[in-house]
Specification:
Layout: E1 2-4, H1 6-11, H2 23-29, E2 33-35, H3 40-43, H4 47-58, H5 62-74, H6 80-103
Parallel strand pairs: 1-2
Protein name: Adenosine deaminase
Keywords: Hydrolase, Metal-binding, Zinc
GO molecular function: adenine deaminase activity; metal ion binding
Length: about 100
Amino acid sequence: MLTLCPVSNVVLRGAARLADLPIRKFLDAGVRFSINSDDPAYFGGYILENYCAVHDAFDLSVDEWAGVAMGAVEGSWCDEARKAVLRAEVEQVVGEWRGRLAMV
């Protein structure tokens, strides 16, 4: 399980641009990771900005986002009861998005 902080990776020049990060390679290889922020006040990227930046750079599908979200739940320090609640919430949101996309 990896913790990725994409915006700060670019700010710190670990990558020239967000699209250069190996996120697509990780997804294709089945590597579990979560997307996080790293000192957002300093690096200018709160969690939502990190998620939006990843989506803009890699155009993740609903299924890929579901995998990222489930990876974050599984990699968390929550107890199993809390993880079960979070997994159910992720499944509910993913189901809602699939329903919305089916109407488009």
